[in-house]
Structures are given as structure tokens and as C-alpha cells.
Amino acid sequence: MTDAAAQADRRMLEALVCPQTHTRLEYLPDRQELVSKAAGVAYPIRDGIPVLLLDEARPLA
Question: How many domains does the chain have?
Fold first, then answer.
């Protein structure tokens, strides 16, 4: 992936919001997750695709 493509992907991820609270999500590249601190969950990113389904979210410890 080029730097420009990686930057575009990061901008896209930063534009997403939590489907439950409609607040911003924090991207954790090392875990491949999007975290909603407001909802207390982390949404997985699988094969480069954010899975923003409540049933797929992991509760934060």
C-alpha cells in the first residue's frame, strides 16, 4: 500500500462514527479495531473492512 493510499484509508476510518452513539471512533491499527469509548465497545476491522455491527463488537475491559 502506498503512503497516499494508507493516508486515504486512515481518513476514511476517522470519518466513521459509532452506530450506537454516533460519536467518533478511535482507530487502533495494531489491534485492527475501531473503539467507541462512549459505547464501551471495539468494532473489528476484517480484511480491511470495518464491521460496525453491535453483535460483532467486543466489550472494552
Answer: 1
Collect all residues with Cβ–Cβ distance below 8 Å to 35 and sequence separation of at least 6: 25, 26, 27, 28, 41, 42, 43, 60
What CATH number should be reported for the domain holding residue 49? 2.20.25.10
Global pTM reads 0.84
Which tens digits make up the pLDDT trace of 11-44? 888 889 999 999 999 999 999 999 999 999 999 9
Q: Do 15 and 34 form a contact (C-beta atoms < 8 A)?
A: no
Mean pLDDT, range 4-14, rounded to an integer:
75
User: Is 48 contained in some domain?
Assistant: yes
